[in-house]
Amino acid sequence: MQSTEKVRKQFLLDPDKIQMVKKITHASTDTEAINRALDMVIANEKIQKALAAVKGKGKIEDVFGRVSA
Predict the structure, then answer these.
(1) What is the per-residue pLDDT for 58?
(2) Interatomic CA distance for residues 37 and 1, integer angstroms
(3) Can you give the chain as a three-state secondary structure string?
(4) Measuring CA to CA, which residue among 33, 43, 39 is closest to residue 13?
(5) pLDDT tens-place values along the chain, 69 residues long
(6) Number of CB atoms found within 10 A of residue 34's CB
């Protein structure tokens, strides 16, 4: 997700969390890491909405018998 307009914000953030996000997202800067994390949250919301929309539709066969009726 790319936005053409950028805004400057000031936050107090846990540096350990930023380092962890940088490692997970392979970001080279704090800003890049935060942007990637925000993109992940937005993508996750879209996935959750899509899953909710198809919940209970169609027939899924439990071929491994993992779910009891």
Answers:
(1) 77
(2) 11
(3) CCCCCCCCCCCCCCHHHHHHHHHHHCCCCHHHHHHHHHHHHHHHHHHHHHHHHHCCCCCCCCCCCCCCC
(4) 33
(5) 566 899 999 999 999 999 999 999 999 999 999 999 999 999 999 988 888 787 777 777 778 877 665
(6) 19
> Is the Cα dihedral 26, 43, 39, 17 positive or negative?
negative
Whole-model pTM: value is 0.72
What is d(CA 1, CA 7) in angstroms, rounded to the nearest whole number? 15
